[in-house]
Amino acid sequence: MTQATLLLVEDDANLADGLLASLEQAGYRCLYAENATKVAELWRDADLVILDRQLPEGDSIEWLADWNKLKTIPVILLTAMVSVRDRVGGLDSGATDYITKPFAEAELLARVRVHLRHPVGEVEVSSNDIVINDVRIDNASRAVFCGDEEMTLTRTEFDLLHFLAKNAGRVFTRDELLDQVWGYNHYPTTRTVDTHILQLRQKLPSVNIETLRGVGYRMKA
């Protein structure tokens, strides 16, 4: 197997030294840039980039679109910004993933492995997957992807999505969904189904779950 090349962009020398040692020990070839100036000349040689968001010159996402034009590769953003707005802004700018500081090196290595297995634009689809528009449901790992991004769903949200997707086109009443997904016929209120449908629509807007007034729900294929 060809050795993957990682580009680490981090201005904190102590953190960079530790990360480079861990990445090299894990078997990766590493390139290093301590600021934005050096990134462009190293970008094309990398298979994946670990990018600190706050660099001496400013917010690294300001240059991310230009760097991605050089070569489209997975980018894991390192950030101390924890608000949803900041994280969404990083992903919208062209990052593939993010990890908030402080973080465990084991988690970073796991994310590197995942993104190297499924490079940008090269998503592996198995026979067990269900694909609807840009959403892929991996039944084996109970993972849901919207494009290249893995979505965060609760256990019940996944079960409901998977059930509707594998029965796309068929209409189910709320009571039928409670029985099939929740596992029992009676629940204090069928409103719980409506709540979970709303959550799925918010998280996966490209998946069309139709409401049939007075009847129930169905997923359009």
Automatic annotation (TrEMBL):
PROSITE patterns in the cross-refs: OMPR_PHOB (PS51755), RESPONSE_REGULATORY (PS50110)
DNA-binding region: 127-221
One Pfam family from the record: Trans_reg_C
Residues of the Response regulatory domain: 5-116
GO biological process, one term: regulation of DNA-templated transcription
One term of GO molecular function: phosphorelay response regulator activity
Domain OmpR/PhoB-type: 127-221
SMART domains reported for this sequence: REC, Trans_reg_C
Keyword set, alphabetical order: DNA-binding, Phosphoprotein, Transcription, Transcription regulation, Two-component regulatory system
InterPro entries, sorted: CheY-like_superfamily, OmpR/PhoB-type_DNA-bd, Sig_transdc_resp-reg_C-effctor, Sig_transdc_resp-reg_receiver, WalR-like, WH-like_DNA-bd_sf
A GO cellular component annotation in the UniProt record: protein-DNA complex
The keyword Manganese belongs to this UniProt entry's keyword annotation: no
Keyword Phosphoprotein listed: yes
Sites of 4-aspartylphosphate modification: 52
Transmembrane segments: none
Annotated function: This protein is a positive regulator for the phosphate regulon. Transcription of this operon is positively regulated by PhoB and PhoR when phosphate is limited.
Protein name: Phosphate regulon transcriptional regulatory protein PhoB
Organism (species): Salinivibrio kushneri
Source organism phylogeny: Bacteria, Pseudomonadati, Pseudomonadota, Gammaproteobacteria, Vibrionales
